[in-house]
Amino acid sequence: MHGRPRKASKPEDEAASAAKAVKLRSLQSQFMTYHHEKIYTKEAIELSTKLLEINPEAYTAWNYRKLAVEDSLSRIGPDPNLVKPILDEELRVVENALKQNFKSYGAWHHRKWVLSKGHSSTGNELKLLDKFQKLDSRNFHAWNYRRFVVELTNRSEQDELQYTDDMINNNFSNYSAWHNRSVLLSSLLANRADGFMPEKRIPDEFEIVHQAIFTDPDDQSGWFYHLWLLDQTVNVESPLLTSSWPSHGSSVILSGAGCLNGPPSNVTTFCSETGSFPLILYFDQAVGGVSPLTVTIDSELKGNENLVWEPISNKSSQVSCVWVARLKYFSSQPCGSKDHKVKVRLGNSPGIVSSRGYNFSAPYEFVFTVHVQDTAEDSHSQESIVSWTDGFELWDAQSKDLNSLFTLDQLNNGIDLKWRQAAIDSEIECFRLLADSKIGKLTLARLLMASEAMTLDAAVKGVYYEEILQLYNDLMALDSSHHQYYKNEHSVAFLHKVTSSSESLSRHLFRYRDMNNLVCLRLNKLSLSRIASVEKLLFVQMLDLSHNELHSTEGLEAMQLLSCLNLSHNRIRSFSALDSLRHVKQLKVLDVSHNHIGKHSVDTTRYLCSSPLSNSDWSQDGVRGQNPGLVTKYWDAYFVLRDLNLKQLDIAGNEIADDEFSSFVLQVVPKLVWLNGQKPGN
Amino acid sequence: MSSTSSSQMGQLVADKHVRYILMAEKKKESLESVVMDHLRMNGAYWGLTTLDLLDKLGTVSEDEVVSWIMTCQHESGGFAGNTGHDPHILYTLSAVQILALFDKINILDVGKVSSYVAGLQNEDGSFSGDMWGEIDTRFSYIAICCLSLLKCLDKINVEKAVEYIVSCKNLDGGFGCTPGAESHAGQIFCCVGALAITGSLHHVDKDLLGWWLCERQTKTGGLNGRPEKLPDVCYSWWVLSSLIMIDRVHWIDKAKLAKFILDCQDLDNGGISDRPEDAVDIFHTYFGVAGLSLLEYPGVKAIDPAYALPVDVINRIIFTKNDC
């Protein structure tokens, strides 16, 4: 099937293969007769041997041989001297078959089956494996079989690590050896085996993999191993809290649905119809176990005894980086204006665990103030259309809200950062020497990003971003096939840069007068192809991402305060790409006009959207009952829009947005007030 | 794709491929057919799906195919690769997929087939290929795909099945056939597909795996299956569909890949090979056309990246709520 040259067949060849075909057909028929009639004579078994010699892929013949062996064993009894020759014959047949095709699943499995019977010598197996390694060091069947034998013989992980050493020293271009090394080493490090402390071992491994990368920078064998080492260096095992909303030391004004049209203040104002506000916890990795038992809240706000913590993730997942609880702030009696301190504590009781099994252990607490205000009676302001062009004012850069964003970095105090920073600095020095190659530039960019993430010193923070952005620009030119990968990384670095200081962030912050000075972040016309740094943007209520190159809202699910989102003039291809917005319960205003919805036959977010396709959402309702055809045709628009509580939606300028679709939307979102800038029914 | 005209990169000789498939189907006694006798069910799935993608499924006799399929079913409920052979999960899925193409799943005793498949799940959540116990994440995918098409996914322990697949995740973000096994594009497709169908893609580190996958694109524009190996048209399916399922397909050069696939065609006799100028076969013809479908090549119907069947077939099956 693979690697045979294409050539016109000559008559002699055709005659020869026709003859072979007839012979093989006759063998097959005879074999089938023996198999179906359960004939296990010596002659019959020999026929199957012949068949497998010619065609080791004939799986039924391997099954037959197992039945023949079981038949023989049942008749001769348990005497090992009688059993061994029978099993040895099977091993011989397998070895012959493997000579024909050393990638035959049937042959390898038959060998495992024989070995599992326990009468064969495992010493031979390692010798056989060495033979196959020399023929093809990348044969994954052989490596898998090696793992099987190692388990049978209880060989130590250290010995197997030494084996990968030998393989790599022999030829560094052996990805299979590097892979096996990573498996063994991560197990030895996790178990803190003798001589396997990360702070000594990881720098040693960096040295070893350098030889592979520097000898031939275009050979990928060491690239992924190096990336794994970098991950081990940068990522602390136990989970940490990256950010929260409200953040430590901040103040929030809370009021009801009507909201107030008061003077602009330097403090975030949050209005809610339900009288509750989201308390958001953003961790550095996915964790489970966030609950009232593991997170305690001290405050005077009433009605929060049975708080429910939700992970922001799809339905079948119990873990997430982002957890939200909704704290009630209105009591039954009007209370006038009042300040309440809220203290949140976590890490005092065990229970918050990362998906890799490590506990959140460092106790941490943060305190913020909420100022609850009575609502005005008039709630009509919710119905007026939101404009993305008028009514904005710059936000004061001195706002305390922004300063408090950057205090959480102190969480990462100590936690053996020294060896990590030293390793990164050493790697940076090394890779500057490889700055002409693709892998050199890419690794350097990643190392500089890692260094930025680790830097606690505010004076030095942000120093590398210009260089990182330049490296990604270089890579886009150097390796144009992967242009979009580097473009995405560029956008991520750019957003990290924007959010790296309150000064740079505030240049993009505005207040929207018509909605009680809602905080608006403007990131339009920046060629952004990817969303990032959301942990620093949890306070944002209005987000303008128009005129960029986004094709999905992946990452926005954490922005629980978001009520207005502008995604016009981007590259959104389907409603399934907006699935993450289903978690943003506050969202009222959405502009996806002038995108590519309906233009493409391939949906790249088809399985990243909760729906019956991913066996995630079967719920029926009236719309689905009455319009099954349209629900199938516009399935993703149906499932996504149904979960949003939109008042204002813009879909003009998308191929999908014809009359049929627009009227379908109005059925799915009956509470919509504005569609494409008009009131429906006009 | 819309920015590159098809004439610049070569043409898809669809009619020739259709003829190649129809002729291969008839040549039951050629050496190639006889050698592949035991996997005819897979071959039928590859050939018939390709025909449907090119909108030519009507050129075969549905009755002939369906009655042959049923001769391959065992009393256990499983299907064999061909009449007379033993049942196996591989051929059971192909049989169900072919019936799905013809909208004839209803002729099956769905309870029987689904029980055969469900019965192959082991305690640790993994799946065996048949009664002889070979374990491989390919079989996890096959079981999940098959049972989902039969609307009987609740007959297995989905949570444990997912747990086993996740245990096969490697440090490079990819997946192997068993825990600790090296990442390979074929296995990655199976694991990502299984996670997609069970709504469990949150277990995939999309950026890490996406980078590993996009680096499969070689200077030729074709994709290989793992680092430092040669490009092969079949990876146009396994790598490409994986990238699409995790929404990272924009990280490769789609136009270059399309050109590579088109260069693997036998423009005279039809059929597609693993590499340019190599011998063609049904296997690579299917993966080449399926790959072009994922690249939105004009004249090819859209294919579902998880089920490997046309989107219209899957939407028809999934959005009608009939339980097992």
UniProtKB/TrEMBL annotation, chain A:
Catalysed conversion reaction: geranylgeranyl diphosphate + L-cysteinyl-[protein] = S-geranylgeranyl-L-cysteinyl-[protein] + diphosphate
A Pfam match: PPTA
Keyword Repeat recorded: yes
Coiled-coil spans in chain: none
UniProt keywords, alphabetically: Prenyltransferase, Repeat, Transferase
Family: Belongs to the protein prenyltransferase subunit alpha family.
Role played: Catalyzes the transfer of a geranyl-geranyl moiety from geranyl-geranyl pyrophosphate to cysteines occuring in specific C-terminal amino acid sequences.
Protein name: Geranylgeranyl transferase type-2 subunit alpha
Gene from which the chain derives: LOC104717829
UniProtKB/TrEMBL annotation, chain B:
Source organism of this protein record: Camelina sativa (False flax)
Keyword Chloroplast: no
Keywords associated with the record: Metal-binding, Prenyltransferase, Repeat, Transferase, Zinc
Cofactor note: Binds 1 zinc ion per subunit.
Domain of life, source organism: Eukaryota
SUPFAM superfamilies assigned to the protein according to its UniProt record, in alphabetical order: Terpenoid cyclases/Protein prenyltransferases (SSF48239)
Cofactor: Zn(2+)
Keyword Transport: no
EC nos: 2.5.1.60
Protein name: Geranylgeranyl transferase type-2 subunit beta
First-tier enzyme category under EC: transferase
Function: Catalyzes the transfer of a geranylgeranyl moiety from geranylgeranyl diphosphate to both cysteines of proteins with the C-terminal sequence -XXCC, -XCXC and -CCXX.
Family statement drawn from the similarity comment of this UniProt entry: Belongs to the protein prenyltransferase subunit beta family.
InterPro entries: PGGT1B-like (IPR045089), Prenyltrans (IPR001330), Ptb1 (IPR026873), Terpenoid_cyclase/PrenylTrfase (IPR008930)
Annotated Prenyltransferase alpha-alpha toroid domain residues: 13-308
